[in-house]
Amino acid sequence: MTSTTAFAFAGGAAPTTTTTWTTAPTTTAPGGVDDYYRDALGKSGATLKSALHGIVRNQTRLSYDQVWEALKVTDEDPANPNNVVLLYSGRSQAKSTNGGDANDWNREHVWAKSHGDFGTATGPGTDVHHLRPEDVSVNANRGNKDFDAGGSVASEAPGNYTDGDSWEPRNAVKGDVARMLFYMAVRYEGGDGFANLELNDRVSNGTQPYHGRSSVLLRWHAQDPPDAFEKRRNQVIFDRFQRNRNPFIDHPEWASSIWS
């Protein structure tokens, strides 16, 4: 697919661009990663968080409609190029079945869009680093719950658990979820007209710009390190869509430096 829409860049007006999207995930190695992070190397704690924000905020922004096509590339099933892999369900499903009907897949905001009230606005509401394909009803079951351990088995998504105020994803993506939230807490720091998104160690955060539970997320991050699918996804987003990266996939050690 070829889009001739002029994307808006954070921090300034966008040049007019023509972006060609292909349907196959990239296999390009993440060359020059240390150069990308050169302003953050050697830093720790709050200084590291600030440096990473300065790096990753320089991104190409997508519209919410463009997210549909981006997810068909970023989350393509390596075993079947006609399908995407759903985040919580783990199901491989036809790319063409995106929509709002039962058993379609739609756009799951891993950082719940009500946590900071950004909705589907271009910026945090369309940032594919935390948007993933998911079954419509499973997405609704997760709702805007924070992340924590425990609960009852989630309907239609065995391996996931939920209760009145939290969601526990399946083991294979626990770390993925944690790193998506880490990214959001670094990327959105109150600029761009959006709320300052931060992690805390609570659930039931509602519409506040917080997401938890941070201690559980750090444990999941250590338990489930980045795998090939997640690393390729990060590279695809950089190469073809947003031109920015999730630092916690490239440098997992930085999460404990900032939040421990």
UniProtKB/TrEMBL annotation:
Molecular-function annotations in GO: endonuclease activity
Annotated segments matching region Disordered: 138-165
Transmembrane residue ranges: none
Pfam families: Endonuclease_1 (PF04231)
Keywords, alphabetical: Endonuclease, Hydrolase, Nuclease
Source species, domain of life: Bacteria
Protein name as it appears in the record: Endonuclease I family protein
UniProt source species: Saccharothrix xinjiangensis
